[in-house]
Amino acid sequence: MHPATTVTEHSAGPAREACPNSAHDRLCVDHPCQNAQMPPHPVDLAEKLSLFSERWSPKVVARLNDYEIKVVKVEGEFVWHTHADTDELFLVIDGELTIQLRDGNVHLRPGQLFVVPRGIEHCPIAKGEAHAMLIEPVGVVNTGDAGGSLTATYDDSLK
Question: What is this structure's pTM?
């Protein structure tokens, strides 16, 4: 469990800890922060990507310690943003993705990855549909400090 304040009474059952993730405003009962075990089978990324069509809306497919493995479909230009407290890993599965940086662009093809260092302003862009895997700490918001209409809601329904 994460270090947090233990809640001694909870109507849903045994005591739970308050979620340390600032993106959550309630006690987490069935959330990954409670270290739920993953099913004993491989995660098929192509299958997970076939289950949704939304663009720029990352879906959690697995957990690794305090990190989430997400898949996302992208097309067009995202928003310029930064993540002050964390690096962000992009691994292209299908299509092509460009990570625009203020001092140059990084072009990615399937099988290539790039880590955007914490605090570096960036803007992903894809001319056609591209599929990618992201690895980020629990609670990272896709639009970082920019916010706006492309901010995705937390979705671990594919896990």
Answer: 0.73
* Residue type present at position 99: I
Instruction: List, for residues 109-138, the tens digit of each pLDDT value.
Output: 999 999 999 999 999 999 999 999 999 999
Q: Could you tell me if 20 and 96 lie in one domain?
A: no
Q: Is the dihedral of CA 116, 118, 122, 124 positive or negative?
A: positive
Count the neighbouring beta carbons within 10 Å of the beta carbon of residue 103. 6
Residues of the chain where predicted confidence (pLDDT) is lower than 50: 1-18, 22-30
Decide if 101 is inside a domain.
Answer: yes
**Total domains, the chain:** 2
Residues 96, 43 within the same domain: yes
**Domain with 57 in it:** 38-137
DSSP 8-state code for residue 104: E
Within-domain flag for 147:
no
